[in-house]
Amino acid sequence: MFRNEDGSIRKALVISLGLHLLIGVLFLVGVNFTTPKRPTQAASIIEATMIDDGMVAAQAERLAEMQAQRDAEQAAAQAKADAEQKAAEEAERKAAEKAAADEAARQAEQQKAVAEQKAKAEAERQQILEQQRKAEEARKAAEAKKQAEAEAARKAAEARKQAEAEAARKAAEAKKQAEAEAARKAAEAKKQAEAEAARKAAEAKKKAEAEQQRKAAEAKKKAEAEAARKAAEAKKKAEAEQALKDLEALMGGSAGGSSSAASAAEVDRYTGMIIAAIQRNWLVAPTMVGKQCRINVRVASDGLILTIGQGQGDAEVCRSATLAIRKTGTLPMPKDPAVNKQLQNLNLTLIPRL
Fold this sequence. Notes:
By secondary structure, the chain is mainly alpha-helical. It contains six helices and four strands; from the N terminus they run H-H-H-H-E-E-E-H-H-E. It has helices at residues 2-28, 42-48, 53-251, 256-280, 315-328, 337-343; strands at 293-299, 305-308, 312-313, 345-350. A hairpin with a 5-residue loop joins strand 1 and strand 2. Helix 4 packs across helix 5 and helix 4 crosses helix 6. The relative contact order is 0.05.
């Protein structure tokens, strides 16, 4: 905008200067440049040539006046031109001053506009900075809030975890106490039950032992009676055999029968010794009293037990009797070959005794 006004002013000044120069030139050449008209007739020329010196002087004077007038006119024109040039220069100076003032005003306005723009830009920059500061403060506040919330959540989680752990600990402790109390009560109940069971078992055992003792006594009594009977029978048989032997001796009979009876008695005697040896190694329980087991035993000539057969009778008695036979190891055997041979294959009837 200011640049266009400056160009218009300069253009007006140039036009004005040109007009003033043209006017000055017109003033300078304002004299009558028209050549005098030549006489159309020769007579006139001839007459001019015939003019005397007075006329020439007059003409010269007139020409001098004309020259003076022309000079005065030229001087006036020059003065006017100078005045106009001075006026034009003054106008140009004023125009230049005005243009300078306008330029200064324009520059001032421009500087003002620039300053305003700068101030506006600065204000905008400050506003942006303020917005950035507020945004940063908001971001920091949000971050601080987030951190505070996270910290609060962490503390809450930690407190919840501690509370849960404490509750779990208390629950575990209560469970442990309850289990201990239940275990104590169960142990006490078990102890009472065991005591009651022991009491009942003791009573039952006492009754069973009494019953076993009764049965054992009865069995013993029966066995003793049976043994006494057998002893009596054996004694009676021996007495009979002795009587028979005596009779045969009196009658002069052979010694073969006496030898056979002696062998039978020896077999019975060693059989009793073998059973007694087994009885010494036999662990008898009260529940076995009144029962028996028949078992076959094969023995070497030196008394070493070779085989033990499958027992027949009470299973517990047969199992216990087999252990007793194995524990005995070597049985007592007679030196008489005939008796010894008879004892190498034994069928023993074993009756447990307390």
